[in-house]
Amino acid sequence: MNYSDCPINFTTDQTNRMRTALATGGGSGRNNLWSGTNLTATDVNGSGICAPIADIISNNLSYTVCSGSSLIMKSASYNGTIASYAWAVSSGTAATPTASQTSIVFPTPGTSIVTLTVTNGTGSSSVSKTITVLDGSVQVPNNYFESFEAPGLPANWTVVNNNGGSVTWAQTNQAAIDGTSSYYIRGATNFANHIDYLVMPVINPQLNVNNTVFTFKYAYARASASNNDKFEVQGSIDCGGTWNTIIGLSAATMASGSGGVTSSPYTPAASEWKLYDVYAHPNWFTYTGYPSVMVRFMFQEDVGGVGFGNNFFLDDIIFSDPNGVNELTKSLSFRMAPNPTNGQTALMFNLHDASKVSVEVLDIMGRQVLPTENYNLNPGEQSIDVNKNKTLSHGIYFVNVSVNGAVMSRKLIID
Length: 415
Known about the structure:
- Helix content is 7%, strand content 39%.
- The protein is mainly β.
- The strands form six sheets. Strands 9, 11, 12, 14, 17 and 19 form a six-stranded antiparallel beta sheet that branches.
- The chain starts with 11 loop residues before the first helix and ends with a strand.
């Protein structure tokens, strides 16, 4: 029986019985519950004589971090006034080991145990958290291009089929804006609310902070005016421990200026591809100060609807620091043909003055795959053959041409 919601429901005899019980000493000792001595001993009166109980949390509520990066850890201890803090890390360094909050750098992949001990005049306690430290090594070069031309998933990319099923991100040659292939979601056979991720390799935005180009192109058609597909670009600064939305596009926004609304299976025309500049979005600046960032593309089928929508295509992803190269490229009329090619290609450009020129070819991991060629060239129209011996295998490469120290780069596709 509960009378607490309305005190007048207690009778006089009930009230007297409760007061008598609370005042009873002897064997029951109930009168000790509200005595001044007991209130002090249990710190109910806030005098602060209890030993503290340690607890810690990270500033972003994540306990996963990239190697070489840091987490801000802070005390969430309670139960008593704290006189001192002591942080200990099994693998890493705490910036302020005696403060209530500290930034801890975790240098190597693996696990690290963070321990906080809190103390006052009555006693102390400790608590530990296990931090998962993932490899935060940058996986792509400073100038990175991906148009999904090589068969299969590109190196260091990942597809996450979040809800299972047969539909997820897949390579297709149905449509492309650069080359002959792209990645797409086959929405017509996709169930409602299904989420799929296409995860990029780890990038370093600090390298490109001054002249960053970070763009992608997409094409999409909405199956009906009520279809509620959703596309997001998401970022992580802790190697995938936590993700946040950088860009969110609705079905109506994606379809506008692209494929519009059609119930027919969608294949985009060249004019229906849309360019999106990630660097121009204000949310991207959250990530530009970090040396290890993961980016993923999320597509969710018909949120809250019936599913079975239409196709979404993604292509021509560029993460680059042009550093004025575009203007130099124009002034030299720099071009490369044929491209794609199954063998040799020619670099063509026009020199206004005698120049020192070098040519190198890199794979998508930034590794040099052909010997550097150096030339002293006179003014005029130039043509330099690349891959003369047809030693490059099928795939994507980057041809870097240095003219008196200024470097221009072109993507080369070997069929």
